[in-house]
Input
Amino acid sequence: MFTPLHFPKADLKLSRLNEQVFVWCIIRQKKLVLTPEEWVRQHVIHYLINSKNTPLGLIASEFTIKINGLTRRCDIVVFDYAKKPILIVECKAPEVEINEQVLHQIAHYNFKLDTSYLYLTNGLFSFACQINKFENKLNFFKELPSFEEMIN
Output
């Protein structure tokens, strides 16, 4: 039904009502319609918690920000213990290409949040980078650093 993703197996709680499939979001504490993008977002949330040791209480999903008077939603934002944003995650459906346009989208969000890390994924291809403000460039990683590495 949904594309197998390049993330560790996630213990998603799925349910069905008529022809509609729902997933329980452990961040928002509610059932959500399981779209292809939500499939990726929920896998990333479980990846952050189970593989990157990110505390559940420091993750926000569909985090609302205002940019030039317009409301935007970051798919996932991770905060440090002082509640400062340290990571923005942009999730796309598996069939959506991760390209320069997606990088511009997440960079636009980061003008507001000023994080040190960005993560772009469609579940099949992912890019992690750290923003090097001293050299004004992005340092790309093969894999997203752990939560502890990001806050140190």
